[in-house]
Amino acid sequence: MSDRRFVHAILAIVYVVFLARLLESPSVADDWPRFRGPNGDGKTSDTSLPVEWGDEKNLKWKLKLPGAGFSSPIVVGDTVFVTAYSGSGNNVKRHVISVDREKGSINWTKSTDGVSDGGEPGFAYHGQASHTPVCDGERLYAMLGSSGIKAYDLAGNELWHHDLGNERSARFGTASSPILYGDLLIVTAGSESESIRAFNKVTGEEVWKAQAGSLSQSYSTPLLVTASDGVEHLVHSVAFELWGMNPKTGKLIWYAETKVDTAACPSVLADNDIVYVIGGRSGGRAAIKLGSQEDVASGKDITAKNTVWSESGGSYVPSPVLYEEKLYWINDQGVGMCVDTKTGEEVARKRIGGRYYASVLLAGDKLYAVSRFDGTRVFKISPEFQEIAHNTLSDESDFSASPAASNGQLFIRSDEALYCIAQE
């Protein structure tokens, strides 16, 4: 064999080996296209996220935002999307922002005039830009409260817009994030019109609408669950009840009573046909088995039949994660909770410190918890909540958004800025 042919053969072998390893290796470049990630459960398999950071360490970029907000960033390909608001009263602007993931610069911003969706006095900042957008890779869907739901292409061109009402019936504004189901965009418009609606994601045509007064006190983002028998359930938490709906029609197919009182904020989780729900000011938690084919056909109350356990004690705003048959969360007052999923019994509680609205993020065996005013803590996930890092930035504004993770990068936002954290 000639030297040239030998070199070509070696290069071909190297390329094949490289390609095989690339295809076999687990991807950590997954998008984070909606609230709490691809599955809505606050989990990522990406174990390359930085554990420690600060103004001078592992901070890839910081971008000043045109306004404040509690909505979480999402990540699709080379773009980060986030919403914000500015102004107050009858002069509110809601902003949808596209950010270059590599450079940390704004690609485009689209602004909409509106009025305040804030809650009662003292909580006017709630609900103004609290809905996390969702993206299907071709279109971005942004819930803007009383300014409606808007669809954009990824270049920022508005594709369609739907008004959702302006009843402003919720005590603390509005917050539930939209989700995608096949060709449907599902939107909870609790404060706007006490409804859940589904739109054709391409045309914007309304496909179904379900109304109930109890939706006015629900800030939770619904979850799509496919049961082991193949039945699809749109599961949603409202005050004192957990609902199972048909995602194709919006029909209520079952419900179960819970101890989630006052307001339902945290998102639900599901595993092996069991739905876990926490929430309420006083706090409650429950495990409910999904309704059977018989239940689905009748739309009945399955509380007595399907409640695995129901206990007092939960979380008012932050959502939990599920890890090795245990639920973990850090509540608003900075108390870490660990609960056994089989019994509902409290395994451990630990005072962490700080105040929290953001939901925890689980990356491998590490738990990331973003506090409102006291930085981000990283824990080795266990009932002991072993703290391995406490990271702060020179930003004294409110960090109430849940973090996003993709391809070794962590994205967090405050009322002032969007941050990309990455290993140097």
How is this structure best described in words?
This protein has 424 residues and is mostly beta strands. It has a single domain, classed as YVTN repeat-like/Quinoprotein amine dehydrogenase (Methylamine Dehydrogenase, Chain H). Helix content is 8%, strand content 41%. It is built from 4 helices and 33 strands. The chain has helices spanning 3-24, 190-193, 293-298, 303-306; strands at residues 43-44, 59-64, 74-76, 79-88, 91-100, 106-114, 134-135, 139-143, 149-153, 158-162, 179-181, 184-189, 195-200, 206-211, 223-226, 232-238, 241-245, 252-257, 269-271, 274-279, 284-289, 307-312, 321-323, 326-330, 335-340, 346-351, 361-363, 366-370, 376-380, 386-391, 404-406, 409-413, 417-422. The protein has a 5-stranded mixed sheet, with no helix packed on it. It has a 4-stranded antiparallel sheet with strand order 2-33-32-31, with no helix packed on it. Strands 3-4-5-6 form a 4-stranded antiparallel sheet, with no helix packed on it. Strand 16 (232-238) and strand 17 form a beta hairpin. The protein is globular, with a radius of gyration of 22 Å.
